[in-house]
What does this fold into?
Amino acid sequence: MSDPRLARLGELVVNYSLGLQPGKVLRIDAPPVAAPLAIEVYRAALAAGAHPYVDLQPERLPELLLAEANDEQLDYVSPIAKAEVELVDAIVTIWSESNTRALTHADPERHQRLIAASQQLAKRRWQRMSAGELGWLGVLFPTEAHAQDAQMSLAEYERFVFRACHVEEPGDPVAHWHAVREELGSRAETLAEARELHIVGPGTDLKLGVEGRRWQAADGRYNMPDGEVYTSPLETLTEGEISFAFPALFHGREVTGIRLRFEGGTVVEAEASRGREYLDAMLEMDEGARRLGEVAFGLNYEIDRFTQNTLFDEKIGGTMHVALGSSFEDLGGLNESVLHWDLVCDLREDGEVYADGELVWRAGHFLESAAPARV
Amino acid sequence: MSERLRRLAEVLVGYSGGVKPGDLTVVEGTMNVEPLLEELYAAVLRAGGHPVVRCTAELEVVRLGEGSDEQVEWLTPAEWQDIELADVWIMVEAPSNTKALSGIDPERQSRMQRARIKWRERYLERALSGELRWVLTAYPTNAAAQDAEMSLAEYENFIYAAAFLDDGDPVTRWRAFADELQRVLEFLSSKEELRFVAAGTDLTFAVGGDRTWAAADGHENFPDGEVFTAPLDDSAQGEISFTFPAVFHGRQVDDVRLRFHEGEVVEATASSGEDFLQEMVGLDEGARRVGELAFGLNEAVRVFTRNILFDEKIGGTMHLALGAAYPECGGTNRSGLHWDMICDLRSGGEVYADGELVYRDGRFLTRS
It folds into this structure.
């Protein structure tokens, strides 16, 4: 009855991603549909000697809140949730949905208000994570809805997800991710020497300043699957334009054909072939929403196609992505926003990236090392 | 079904929990009650409260089966924060399998129960002082229907009838029932001693002194319908044969017979499950004493369904609980246990109050 791939994934996130120690308190957040994975994470955490508990939030709650709540109820953050953020040592967030478009018709202003309230807790969580007091990992549990977005059957999609996490086959996923950690770590060190990145591709000619910023290897410690290197670009130097071939998804909304033009680090022109109103609402969210908080290279070559899910899409081997909104303080980023919206740019066909004028990446691969990140 | 769930949620939030604007309301249940949790969430919002949903998987069997002693004894930060900070706490129980714990060593269960004493005492303390209003209800599942030997549809009808939800105005009906229970409570409050007599049963309790009776009228349990007290700790004398199986945390014990001397169980037997009975009676000092004594008074609950929430309210029964007493009755017995056991008095049962026959065949003879 239980899926051995889920058991392997549970052990991987507890033992590799979180490195959970005996006696530590772990909260496992998931919707009820993802309970099979929540239970495997719970079981692995018990075996590690930790104190796990599971918090399942029914998926319809945001819809009900948006429909029934007055403004005060929308803005409310429960003291229980605030207390819990202080009392846990680690959190596993299992992303999973039964319907990825359930909120498409929600009022964008009320939705934005709801997101802003939830950011209060997220902010405190980030603070504790940055201080090294709180471990966190996000992982996806495959459902029919995600498979549908990916245009696959559930069985195919499960294989896609579990291959990307390296738990599809029996073996040693922990060893694989240690190798990824090493490779991406050295990539991050090389990129840290660059002052400026210049991205050239279809509809894209964008320059970003990255001097003095730290690059981070995303090697499965915060997301599973994983596989990217990223930083927060300098706030005022982004110039030029960028086009996103893939639809951009955010909180159940889809915006397609996005083109952004930047001057002095700020979006001065934004177009979309569909969902323009929502794009504008996001850009208006606050001061920082018009600036980039992240630029990154996707390097998981097991992820070879767009599946309408940021967790996977931003790691597609051969893509780059930028995020509008909040930047990473621990990487030197200074941009503040309640928004953090990843937008993925496909560079696999004829994209090029120059670092300080030197070509370093072409058609989805770094030049000096043609070997993709795999073991 | 969904219209009934909506009505159930409205009664739980409006009548039982009495949710007012601004009340932090924890709505707790397992994932198989998602539809009711959603209705409760919406009803709390409509009442102006702040709902927090506490939903989990049925993990007890994993924890008891695979956890260390320390892990079994641990309570989550959520459990502590919920009872410390909530104004209202609505709990929904709905097992997917009522016998899932049958293979677990009883010692593990008593260890877990013991570890929860402080937590239980803390929420009862907040309830007593009026800071926390809590209510426990049941959601119909196939597992519960199976225990009741009914189809799921029959069981749903049973639950909603017991909750008066098919009534045009359930809240008014509950208020009227509460008045009726109040009259029974007032009658019993003037008595010092109760003696229960039935086949295999002749048991006497002292119920006067500093002890008070409470009416269970849909505020802490829903559905509801009993009056209960905490008898004096050293007063139980005699023996009792429980006509219905005694069920506790997924275990069933049949034909329980208890003999009491000066308030303590001195003999406990059962035709099946006696090991588990002995383990629970020996759980701690207080587990040998009676923490609760009650009359079941809900006439819409007539059949035994192996769910204590309903069974203890069957009109025409009495029950006692081994273990922890309710402070609201002036009870002082402490224990990690609170195990209700039920005795049917509907055919031939008698109750004497201060020597006078006051109850026969499941009914009070006088109601002043």
Summary: The radius of gyration of chain B is 20 Å.
